[in-house]
From TrEMBL:
Record's keyword annotation contains Membrane: yes
Gene: Vstm5
Any one of the GO BP annotations: positive regulation of excitatory synapse assembly
Organism: Copsychus sechellarum
Protein name: VSTM5 protein
Cellular component per GO, a single term: plasma membrane
SUPFAM superfamilies linked to this entry: Immunoglobulin
Length: 200
């Protein structure tokens, strides 16, 4: 009874060793892993601006890249493409998205609804995945502030124009006053000369 048991153990060791060798060989032959770098995880933009959601991935096999947008309005699939094969852009983003070979996308003419989280997934053909996240903040251009500045500028220009006119009027009045004073002095001098002539 002991001999068959030892034979089973021997077979188990052989089968285990062969399985381990096959797994190690498969792991060595399989293109290993995918890496993903997100150089700018936070982006601030204003309405109507174009933004680049920049990433850089590397893998030995063929990769599939997928971008999704998550915000308070829900989750939206933006684009999915397989390197060198196909590009599938969502109809919502059809005319607004450009894809790049390194996995990045450009989003044109952003609006307030484009704020939120952008998730990128890079899936290698052998099942290895890498994930990245970019947070996008979109701000409105505050036209009220620009309006205030424009009104203030117009007000200051009007005040400057009034002050210039006032100074011109003051200068003209002073000139007229000096002319009158000179005329009076000339008249009184003429009268004095006439009086002296009569007395003589």
């Amino acid at each position: 009874l002991m001999r068959p048991l030892q034979g089973c153990r021997g077979r188990a060791v052989v089968v285990g060793t062969v399985t381990l060798c096959l797994a190690a060989g498969w792991a060595l032959q399989t293109p290993g892993g995918v890496s993903l770098v997100v150089p700018q995880p936070n982006i601030n933009a204003t309405v109507a601006q174009n933004i680049l959601l920049s990433v850089e991935y590397s893998c030995r096999g063929v990769a599939t890249i997928e971008w999704k947008h998550v915000s308070s309005w829900g989750t939206t699939s933006i684009v999915e493409w397989r390197s060198g094969n196909y590009v599938n852009i969502s109809t919502v983003y059809k005319d607004r998205v450009t894809t790049f070979e390194n996995g990045s996308i450009q989003l044109r003419n952003v609006g307030m609804r484009d704020a939120g989280y952008y998730f990128v997934t890079v899936m290698e053909e052998h099942g290895t995945n890498a994930y990245g996240t970019i947070v996008v903040n979109v701000y409105e251009i505050i036209y009220e502030d620009l309006h205030f500045v424009a009104v203030l500028f117009a007000f200051l220009a009007a005040v400057s124009a009034v002050l210039i006119c006032f100074m011109w009027l003051c200068n003209k009045s002073l000139h007229l006053f000096q002319k009158k004073t000179t005329h009076k002095l000339t008249a009184s001098t003429t009268e004095e000369i006439e009086l002296e002539t009569i007395e003589c």
